[in-house]
Specification:
3 strands, 3-stranded mixed sheet, 3 domains, Annexin V, domain 1
Length: 342
C-alpha cells in the first residue's frame, strides 16, 4: 500500500512559504501563475518547494488562511499541493529548461546524479576513458557535464579527436531522451561502477562525513577520545569536517545557493537557534520578501529543543557539503577568506 496522504488542517503549523503556496493554489493555476510570475527566482524556489510538499489542505484551513488577508478571495474549497500541480503552474510562465531545473531540485537528485558524478571524476581518468569512445559519445558527455570540468578534460584528448569532438559539439542538436537514458545506463554500468571500486574514499573522509551527522555532545566526546589516542587522525578528520558556523565563510552568491537548496522550514529551525550574527548573515543573503517570510516563520515558532536545532543545522551543512562535492560552491578552509592575494 502507498503512503497515506498528508492532511493539513492546522493553521498555526503553516510556514510563511506554505501560506503563500496555498493562496496561489486557491487562486487556480492561471491566476496563481500570473501572481507567482512576479516573484524573483529565490522566492519561486522557496514557494515551489513548499507547494510540492503541502499534501491535502482542508477547506477549513484555507478559510482560516484567507480570513487573515485583507483582500477577499472566492473560496475554492480544498486544494492539493503536489509535484504535478507545482510543475503545471511553473510551466505557465517559465521556460521548459528552468521548470526542469527547479523541479529536479525539489524532487531530489534522481535523474541528474549521473552527470553530477561524471563532473566529479578526475579529469585525467575521464579523458582516458573518452579516448576509446565514439567522438559523438564524447561530445554528448562533454556537453552534459559542468563546463569548467569539460574545459579540463578537452585539452587531454588527442588533437585529432579533440577537433572532431569540438566540431560535433558545435553541431550537436537536442539528444533524444531515450538515447540519453541509454547513454547514462552505459556510463553507469561500464564506467562509474568500476570507478567507484578503484577510487574509494579515504577512511578519514568517510569518518568526517559520519561525524558531520553526529549530535554535538556525542561528537565532542568522540573527538576528545580521538585526540588522546589518535591525535593525527583526529586532526585530519577535523580538517575535513565543517560545521554550520563554517558556512559563515561562504561568499554571498554561494550562501544564496545553499539557501535555495534548503527546506525553508528546516532552515528556519536552524536559524532560530543560531547566534544573532549567524542568523543575520543568512537573512542578509535573502531578498527583502524572502527575509520577511523567514523572519515571520522564525517569530511564529514556539520553544525548540537544541537537539532539534542542531539536527536542522546539520541538514543545512549536508546541503552545502553536497553542493561543494558537486563543484557548485567552494567552502573556504579556515583562514582562506582572510588571505590576501598580491
Amino acid at each position: 500500500m502507498g503512503n497515506p496522504v498528508k492532511i493539513r488542517d492546522n493553521y498555526k503549523s503553516l510556514s510563511g512559504a506554505e501560506k503563500t503556496a496555498i493562496v496561489f493554489l486557491t487562486l487556480g493555476e492561471e491566476r496563481g501563475s500570473r501572481l507567482m510570475e512576479r516573484l524573483d527566482e529565490d522566492e519561486i524556489r522557496m514557494v515551489s518547494r513548499a507547494m510540492a510538499g503541502l499534501g491535502n489542505v482542508t477547506s477549513n484551513l484555507v478559510e482560516a488562511l484567507l480570513r487573515a488577508f485583507t483582500e477577499r478571495f472566492a473560496s475554492a474549497g480544498s486544494v492539493i499541493g503536489s509535484y504535478e500541480s507545482t510543475e503545471r503552474m511553473l510551466q505557465r510562465f517559465l521556460p521548459v529548461d528552468r521548470v526542469t531545473e527547479i523541479m529536479g531540485e525539489i524532487r531530489g537528485p534522481a535523474g541528474r546524479t549521473m552527470w553530477e558524478k561524471m563532473s566529479n571524476v578526475n579529469d585525467g581518468v575521464l579523458a582516458n576513458y573518452l579516448k576509446s569512445e565514439y567522438p559523438q559519445t564524447t561530445a554528448v558527455v562533454l556537453s552534459k557535464i559542468r563546463a569548467e570540468h569539460a574545459a579540463k578534460v578537452l585539452p587531454l584528448l588527442p588533437p585529432k579527436l579533440r577537433f572532431e569532438v569540438i566540431e560535433r559539439m558545435i553541431q550537436l542538436e537536442a539528444v533524444q531522451r531515450e538515447v540519453l537514458m541509454d547513454l547514462e545506463a552505459t556510463l553507469h554500468a561500464e564506467f562509474m561502477t568500476n570507478y567507484a571500486r578503484t577510487h574509494g574514499h579515504d577512511a578519514h573522509e568517510r569518518m568526517a562525513e559520519i561525524f558531520n551527522r553526529v549530535d554535538r555532545d556525542t561528537l565532542n566526546d568522540i573527538l576528545g577520545d580521538l585526540e588522546r589516542n589518535l591525535p593525527d587522525s583526529a586532526q585530519r578528520i577535523k580538517q575535513l569536517m565543517f560545521t554550520f558556523e563554517d558556512l559563515m565563510r561562504l561568499d554571498q552568491a554561494s550562501l544564496q545557493t545553499v539557501i535555495r537548496r534548503c527546506d525553508p522550514g528546516r532552515l528556519a529551525i536552524a536559524l532560530k537557534g543560531a547566534e544573532p550574527a549567524q542568523r543575520e548573515r543568512y537573512l542578509s543573503a535573502m531578498t527583502d520578501r524572502g527575509r520577511l517570510i523567514m523572519e515571520d516563520e522564525i517569530d511564529n515558532m514556539g520553544p525548540l529543543r537544541m537537539r532539534d536545532v542542531h539536527e536542522a543545522q546539520s541538514e543545512v551543512v549536508q546541503v552545502a557539503k553536497s553542493l561543494a562535492d558537486d563543484g557548485i560552491i567552494v567552502i573556504p578552509q579556515a583562514g582562506e577568506a582572510e588571505a590576501v592575494v598580491y
